[in-house]
Q: What sequence folds into this?
């Protein structure tokens, strides 16, 4: 629970730190619901993997979740970002 919004998240040890996986109903910076991953050592500037604006991580907005199985799409997004950490 954050002061500016509510989201559900879990942490996992990874890459010499911790990775956070979460789901948010949206917030002031990102008005639509989204899934996100925060790496233990994010880059200073967004790149192809860590592309979120407003925080240093990766974000998958609801509007980009395609297909018949949204759960599978979110898991694939999170697994790909976890694999990028090493």
A:
């Amino acid at each position: 629970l954050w002061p500016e919004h509510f989201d559900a998240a879990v942490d996992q040890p990874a890459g010499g730190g911790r990775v956070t996986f979460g789901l948010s109903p949206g917030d002031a910076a990102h008005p639509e619901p989204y899934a996100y991953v925060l790496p233990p050592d994010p880059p200073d500037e967004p790149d192809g993997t860590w592309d979120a604006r407003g925080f240093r991580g990766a974000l998958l907005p609801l509007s980009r979740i395609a297909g018949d199985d949204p759960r599978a799409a979110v898991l694939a997004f999170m697994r790909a970002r976890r694999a990028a950490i090493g």
Observations:
- The mean pLDDT is 86.
- The beta strands are 8-14, 17-24, 34-38, 58-61.
